[in-house]
Amino acid sequence: MKKPIITLALSLAIGNFPNTAVADSKYETPPMFQAARILPANLLKSPYHSVDSKVSNDGVSNHYTVKSKFGTVAADSTAELKIRVDEMKALSAMERVSESKQFTRQVKEGGKDAVAGAKALVTKPVATLKGAFVGIGKIAERAGDALLGDPPSDAEGNRFESMIGFSSTKRDYAAEFQVDPYSTNPLLQKRLEEIAWSGYSGKITTSVISALIPGGIGAFVSTA
Questions:
Q1: Residue 26: what are its φ and ψ, rounded to 5°?
Q2: Which residues have a Cβ under 8 Å from the Cβ of 168 and sit 6 or more positions away?
Q3: How far is Cα 14 from Cα 9, in angstroms, rounded to an integer?
Q4: CA within 20 to 30 Å of 139's CA: 46, 76, 167, 206, which one?
Q5: If we measure between CA atoms, which residue out of 106, 108, 107, 69 comes closest to residue 89?
Q6: Nearest to 191 by CA among 70, 28, 38
Q7: What is the 3-state secondary structure (H, E, C) of 30-82?
Q8: Distances 175 to 31, 106, 218 between C-alpha atoms, Å
Q9: Which residues are paired to 200 by β-bridges?
Q10: Helix axes 186-201, 166-176, angle to 10 degrees
């Protein structure tokens, strides 16, 4: 009868307690918060977005769901939420710019050049390609660097985009709208790609973009 008592005494001496607290914590439900109780008004809702009322927490960060007419996107911290809110505002500015008469007119004009070039490439491929490479010098050299250098990130695009100069246009447009060209927000990436390709084909400079943003980008962006 003494053996169980001795075993129990040894267990207590070395701290070998039944760890019920740890076991219970494995099944503990993550805390939930009400967005309206923890967020300032400018982050909670604006004409461009709204945050879902339920906010989960993993013990380290809050996780939000941001909704807008452009779609729904997650924000995995309050800091990221601020970025997502600004991105939703930038998306609205992009929409206004892309629907403006001047932008659409220049895109159409650029499109005509692109169609003419494509037609020439089909009907007279050798002459067209020969003409394209006459006197390009440094351009060809930069194209070679783009093809042989480090690959760009997935968010930025592929090497061909970098070679033809589109990636640079996308970065310039992103700067004009005060967003990160490498953002992980799929809604922003899709819209930024669209407007940058349109602007690239229409040879629309960032100064034109800036002039087309109603009230300036500051009227849309910045929740700080």
A1: -65, -25
A2: 162
A3: 9
A4: 206
A5: 69
A6: 70
A7: CCEEEHHHHCCHHHHEECCEEECCEEEECCCCEEEEEEECCEEEEECCHHHHH
A8: 38, 21, 12
A9: none
A10: 120
Q: What is the rounded CA–CA span in Å between residue 224 and residue 43?
A: 10
Biggest CA–CA distance in the chain, Å, is 103
HEC states along 146-184? HHHCCCCCCCCCCHHHHHHCHHHHHHHHHHHCCCCCCCC
pTM greater than 0.70 (yes/no):
no
Two tokens, residue 96: 């206004």
Neighbours of 8 (CB within 10 A): 11
- Residue 224 is encoded by which pair of tokens? 């700080």
Q: Round to whole Å and give the CA distance between 32 and 17.
A: 31
The residue with tokens 């939420």 is: 81
How do residues 38-54 score in pLDDT, each as one tens digit? 999 999 999 999 999 99
Assign residue 39 a region (left: φ > 0; alpha: ψ between -120 and 50; beta: otherwise): beta
